[in-house]
Amino acid sequence: MALYLLKRSCGLVIVLLMMSFVTFLLQSVIPSDPARAIAGPYAPLATIEAVRQELGLDDPFLVQYGRFLSSVVSGDLGKSVRTRQPVIDDIARYLPATLELAIASTIVAMAMALCLTLLQLGRSQSPLLSHLFVVLGSTPIILSAVLLPYFFWFGLGWLPGSGRLQHRDIAEGTGFYIIDGLVSRRLDITADALTHLLLPAIALALPFAMAIVRSLAASLREVMRQSYIRTARGKGLSEMSVLLRHGIRNAASAPLAMTGLQVRLLFGNLLVVESVFSWPGLGLYLTQSFATADLPAILAVSMTFGAIYIVVNVVIDIAQALADPRIEL
């Protein structure tokens, strides 16, 4: 285990270095000027040149990149061009919202995948169910993110479709409003946070769940034909007990691997969902940073997403090893 974690830690450093280098390289070829964004669209050329010299934008590419790496090692991710705040403070402010949404969407996706898989196994010959899975799995994220608030917010008025919270009197806490509401014994805040969280979580969970359904259903069909499943049935265990105690665990390896792949897509979908639902997280922050060529913010958020992705895949690898003893780390 220790050797595995050491290898993945080294991989994390290499991936972050590659991400930062590629982002820096793209910034050097994209026709955008951070100095113009800082000085303003009507600033004179002398002011823009002064800003460029202050930021070191006229230095060679490798000099700028080396200066950035030196700052990262010292814990300084630079200052945002758009917010004029240290980027690390912006990430600390917006990361809890993104993590809360990502965790909620993962839980919803897992629950949906399990329910739909059981339904599919029970009605494997239903063409209507198969067509439904194809439709849900092929629906673009932007379409589902727009249709959900259209029906449940504008149409029915059941759920809010914008923002994180209606209450503004919540005390400073972890930034996870559901947890903060429970800790402060404000169940109204927890309920409000849950209702705001539901629609964006479902929008993120739909493609996630459909991918897991296909993998889990295929694995379960194979597992349920094994001899130890017949032995468990012969002992008098109910079909549900056999499925949950023996089937799901032994079929979990492939769905967990698919989950690791879907996390990569989840980060891309976050940009769309947070923008549509005005969710104040890193996805919306990154989208707004693109519009202003905010390179420090883009770099920092990209590296944050890369670090989260590798940590999640480490957890998934460990979960696969625990679910199937034949798998070694």
Could you describe the 3D structure shown?
The protein has 329 residues and is an all-alpha fold. It has 2 domains: 13-73, no CATH class; 91-323, MetI-like (MetI-like fold), CATH 1.10.3720. It is 75% helix and 0% strand. The chain contains 14 helices and no strands. The chain starts with a helix and ends in a 6-residue tail after the last helix.
Q: What topology does this entry show?
A:
Layout: H1 2-29, H2 34-39, H3 45-55, H4 61-73, H5 87-122, H6 127-138, H7 141-155, H8 177-183, H9 187-223, H10 227-234, H11 239-250, H12 253-276, H13 282-291, H14 295-323
Main features:
329 residues; single chain; 14 helices; MetI-like fold; globular; 2 domains; mainly alpha
Query: Which ranges are low-confidence, i.e. pLDDT below 50, for 5 or more consecutive residues?
Result: none
Largest sheet data: none
Structural class: mainly alpha
Total domain modules: 2
- The whole-number mean of residue pLDDT values reads 78
Residue share in β-strands: under 5%
Number of beta strands: 0
Tell me the overall shape.
globular
CATH topology of the largest domain: MetI-like fold
Q: Say which CATH homologous superfamily of the largest domain is assigned.
A: MetI-like
Q: Briefly, what CATH class of the largest domain?
A: Mainly Alpha
Order of helices and strands: HHHHHHHHHHHHHH
Query: If you compute it from the alpha carbons, what radius of gyration comes out, rounded to the nearest whole angstrom?
Result: 24 Å
The CATH architecture of the largest domain can be named as Orthogonal Bundle
